[in-house]
């Protein structure tokens, strides 16, 4: 038993700097709040946020151009009113066509309607 303990202590004493460096790298690399995993996670988050910023900047430029057009061109105001708000002139009718399919009712909804009709 003592011989085995002496062998372990001799190994640790011989490789003490190597063991210290390995333990330090493991702590800093994986367990610390500034670990490699945290750095990679933060870089991914930064990339996602940068994509969002780019998308919002494009949206802002598009909306700014649309607003500028509306300030300078009366036809642009009419176009926005017709396309986005379905406004119309007094002498015309608007028909809004939809490609949406009607939702099929589930068996429970059909049974509930039958029960309501029976009452």
TrEMBL record:
Lineage top rank: taxon: Bacteria
Coiled coil stretches, renumbered: 39-73
Compositionally biased intervals (Acidic residues): 109-119
Alphabetized Pfam families for the sequence: DivIC
Matching InterPro entries: FtsL/DivIC
Region entry Disordered, spans: 98-119
Listed transmembrane segments: 12-31
Protein keywords: Coiled coil, Membrane, Transmembrane, Transmembrane helix
UniProt KW Transmembrane keyword: yes
Protein name per the record: Septum formation initiator
Organism: Segatella bryantii (Prevotella bryantii)
